[in-house]
Specification:
It contains 29 helices and 32 strands. Helix 1 (18-29) crosses helix 4. The longest helix has 31 residues, at 397-427.
Length: 867
Amino acid sequence: MAAAQANPGSVLIVTTQRDDRRVLFDTLDAQNFEAVYTAKDLPQALAFLKQDPQIDVVVMEFVGEAREAVAFCTQLKGDARLAKVPVIGIAAADSAQRHWDWSRAPAGVVDWLRSPVDASEVLARVRNVLAAHAVIGTDSAVGGDRYQFAFEDSLDEIVLSDPKTGAVIDANATFEQRSGFSRAQVIGQPLDALDAGHDRGQRAALLATLAREGSVQYRCNRRRGDGGSRTLEAHMRLAVQDGRLVHVTVFREPASGNDGTRYQAALGLIAAAAECGGGDEGMNQVVKLLCGWLDPDFLMLVSARPEENADIQPMHTYYRSSLPAEAPDPLKQPVLKRLLDGESVFHGERAWQALEQNPFVEFFRYETFIGLPLRDERRSTLGTLIIARRDALATDTLLVDTLRTIAARLALELELRRAREQGRAKGLQDALTTLPNRLLFNDRLETTIKEAHRTGEMFAVLFVDLDRFKSINDSLGHGIGDEVLIAVAKRLRGSVRASDTVARYAGDEFTMILRHIVQRDDVMRIAEKIVRVMEVPLTLADGSELHITASIGVSFYPDDAANAERLLKHADVAMYSAKGMGRNNFQTYVAVPEESHQQRLALESKLRVAEKNAEFRVYYQPQVSTQTEDISGMEALIRWEHPELGMISPGFFIPLAEENGLIVSIGEWVLRTACADARRWQDRFLLNLRVSVNLSALQLRQHNLVEVVARALRDTGLEPNLLDLEVTESINVKNIPNLLDTLQGLRDLGCHIAIDDFGTGQSSLDYIKRFPADRIKIDQTFVRNIGVDPDDEAIVRATIGMAHNLGRAVVAEGVEIEQHLDFLRGEGCEELQGYLFCRPLPAASFENLLGERERVFQNAQAGETAA
C-alpha cells in the first residue's frame, strides 16, 4: 500500500470534550499535518492565538446556544490575520442537523461534525475544507455546493457510495455510457457487485487503507451491462457531498500498449507531474501518477545523504500486496549502493538474474527493475527512485526519457526540501551564541511537559537575566556586549548536563530546562552554582576584565504549573523577585497563599482515595554491578497515575502524604508490592535480586514497623536478605524515638539498611559510624558533576573511601554518562544506578527487561557450547 499522505495545513482543535479532543488529535496527528494544536477551552485558544501561530483551519465545539463560540468566530472574522481561516463546528448528534443550513451558520463556519466525532469523517471534512479553501479562495461565499464534484462533465466514470452500507448512491453519465448500466440499475446495489473479481479479504484491506489515508488505488474487473467485464483502474477517496460523508470511486482506463497512446500517456504524465504541488503531498501525487502509468508491483522513493553517512530513509513506498515476513529488506540490496553512487539501472526483463546477490529482487523474481539516482544541480546524489515489476517492460527511449524527466522533478523537490531544512535549522538557532532560540526552547519545553506528564518526572525551568547589561552596551559598545553574551552562553552550558537545555530567549535573557530532578534542593544547588560561576571576572579580548552577575528565577513542573506559558511566567516572576532582593542571587516561585492552599486541599482530597482506586504504581530502576554491568537489584519507586491529571510527581505528593499521615499506608502498600514482585521474578528467572524500598520518617516512628516488615516478607515469601530498606541521611536520631533500635531490629530480621541521599545532610562521622547501615548511596547531585566539578569529584572519592573503611558497600545514584561509570569503577564503587543503564520502568516493562537479559545469557551460553 502507499505510504500515508502528508497534509499541508495547520489545525487548531478547541473542545472541552476530552474524548473528542483525543480522537481529533490522534487522527490528524497521524496524517502528517504541518501542525496540530489543541486547546481545552476558548480562553486557552485565545491565549494561543495571541502567539501569532500559522493556523489554516479551526475545529471547535458549539455547546447549547454556544454564545461564547459564536463570539469567538466573530472575533476571528474581525482579526485581519485570522479572518479567512475556516471553522469546522462540532455539535452534539441531536443538535447537529439544524446547523446544515449555511445561512444560519456562525461567521466563518463552513462545515460540521457530530459529537462523538468519527475518525474517518474528521479526516475527510478537514481535508475537504483545506482543499476547498486553497482552490476556491477564502473570499468566495460559502455555499451548499462548495464541495460538489464535477459529475456530469467528467470524462471518467464516477460512482458515489455509502461508507457504512457500501450501497451506490449515485453515478455519472460517463459511467452509464461506458458500463451499459443505468443509474436506476446500480443505485442501492452494493459497490462490490460492480467488481467481477471482488475478494472480501482484499476489500477489507482496501477500506482499512481508505479510512487511514483518505484514498486508495486498485485494479478491478468492472462489470458491464452486457454481462462481460473490463479491467480498469479504480481510485477511491473519502469526500463530503451535501453535508454527508461519501466514498467517491473513479474508474479509469489503464495505460494502453500502442505507441501513439504510450506517447500521449507519457506526455500526460510529465505534464501532470509538473502541475503537482510541492512538499510530501506533491511528491505523493507524482508517485501515484507513476503507479498509474507503469502498474508496478513495487515502487520506492528514497532519500539519502551519503556525504554525511546518514541513514537511508524511504519517503514513499508502494507495494501491490503486503510483504511476507520473510521478505528481504529492499534497503539492504547491493544495487542500492550503485544507485546512490550515481549509476542508473534499467532491466526490462529477467532482472532477477541480471542483478545477482540482490535477495529482494530474486525473492520476488522481478522481471523489471529500474533504478534512477536523484541528483541536484551539482550532480550530488540526494536519493533514488526504484521501480520493480513481475512482468517484463520495454525499456525503450520513451520509457527511459520519461522516467529521467520524472526523476529530475523529484530531485528538484528533494533539493528544495534540503534547503528548507537547513534554513529551518538556522531559524531555530541563535546566530550569536549558537544556543537554541526562543522558538526551539518553547518546542523543547512543550515536549518535556508531555514526557513528564507521561512518566511523572519533575523538572525545573530557570529564567536567567544579566544584571545591568544595558549599561555595558551603552558604555562599552555592542561589540563588547556580544562578547559578554557569548561568554555567558558558554558558562551556562558548562554548568549543566548535556541532557539539559540552555537557550537564549531574548536580548540578555537566557532560559534553561533541568531534567530528571529528584529533589528541589538539587536545583537550588545548580542555581547557586550558576550564580557563583557568573561572578568570576570575564577577561575580554583586549585583556581587560569585566564583572558581571545574574539574577535567576526558578519554577518547577508540576508543583508551580502544568503548562509551558505559566512555567515561564512563574520563573520570570521569581527572577524579578531575585532582582528585588539585590540582584546576583536566585529565587524560586512562591504561589499566592490562597491559590496554593486551594491546590493543596484539592490534591489531598484526590490523594485520600488514590490507594482505594488503585491509582498508585510501583516503578523499578535497576541497580547494576560496577564490574559486570549485570543487574544486581532494583529500587522500588512509587508513581501516582491520576485518571484526569496523569502522572503526578512523587516530589509533589509525597511531602503532602507525609504531612497528613497517608504515607504510612502508602509506604506499606509499596513494601508489600515490591516484595511480591521481587519474589515472582525470583521464581520465574531464578535470580536473587535485591529490592530497595524507601522508609519515610513517619514510618520509622511506627512502634510495630519491624512486625509490619516481617509480615510483608512472610506473606510474599521473599527472603529477608533480599530486602534493602533505605533511610535518608537527613533523618535525625534525636527526633525519632528508638530509631537505632528499630533499624537494628530490621537487620535482625535479615534485612539490609542503606543510607539514602548521602552527602546532602549534616551527619557527623560519629553518627555514620553508629548508624546500623550496610550500604551508603551517594546522592546524584555529586555524581552527575563528575568530570565537571573537581570539588564534587573529591566528595565522591572521600565518601567511597570512608564507606569502605567502615565496612559499608557503596551505591552511586544518577549515573548518566560513560565518564561517570569510568570514574566510579576506578574508585571501587560496588553498584551503580542511573539513566546510563535504564530509567525507572513499570513492573511489566521491568519484567520484559529481565526476560531480555535471560535471552541474551541463553544465546551467549549456546554460542559457547557450540564453539
